[in-house]
Amino acid sequence: MKSRSHYQAALAAEYALGTLRGAARIQFEQKMRTDPALAAEVARWQEAFTQLDNQIIPVIPPASVWKRIQHNLALQPEKRPAPPKRPVRGYIGWALAAGLAALLLIPHLLVQPAAPTPVAILGSSAGPQNGQWVVSVDMSTRSLLLTPLSAPDLAADRSLELWAIPPGGKPRSLGLLNTQQPTQLTLAAKMPDPGYTLAISLEPHGGSPTGQPTGAVLYSGTLAL
Q1: Residue 124 β-bridge partners
Q2: Closest listed residue to residue 104, CA positions, set 32, 30, 51
Q3: pLDDT exceeding 90 applies to what percent of the chain?
Q4: Is the pLDDT of residue 212 over 90?
Q5: CB-CB contact of 196 with 222 (8 Å)
Q6: Strands, DSSP E only, in 44-171?
Q7: Is the dihedral of CA 187, 193, 194, 199 positive or negative?
Q8: If you average pLDDT over each of 8-17, 61-70, 76-85, which comes out highest?
Q9: Does the structure show a pLDDT above 60 at 172?
Q10: 3-state secondary structure of 59
Q11: Domain boundaries along the sequence of the chain
Q12: Per CATH, the architecture of 117-222 is what?
């Protein structure tokens, strides 16, 4: 019997691949909004699939292949299509997850360092349709990793800036973010403490000119180390 962690990893792989659909996908998205570890797992699968896709070289088949297909189709008697079979989503999901894990992850298990620990999910003030950010911490490098999940594109003359806000205190800038890929921010000052609010504001290109947020706060969440 598969453990719960293996089951969640398989669902995360299905979600990232796009094979998790319907009510199951909606339920998974709801759980992901409140589970930083699950959201980080999805982000890792999305990154793995992106790397795999970038390695694929398109191959154009010769013209003779298409001619052979046309010839074969012309010789085949017309057949009524068979009734569609009900997909076995669970089996497909496990097969995809297991195969892709073996292809992408197993060769690196012996040398791959520990993954950053998810510590917060920054939700959108405008609703889940604007995506969210997963915040992970790597204590060995004193850095934060911010991974966008379905974040909308940003205008060329605007930047997103991350702020750490202590209870009752002033915001401190932690750096600018990339909406297209994970951003690693090495912290020059001390790591924000648990209970701090992490917020992402919309700023002019290059960041706030005043050292404090000047635009709307688009995402926020509480740090839980």
Answers
A1: 219
A2: 51
A3: 22
A4: yes
A5: yes
A6: 117-124, 132-138, 143-149, 158-165
A7: negative
A8: 8-17
A9: yes
A10: coil
A11: 1-112, 117-222
A12: Sandwich (2.60)
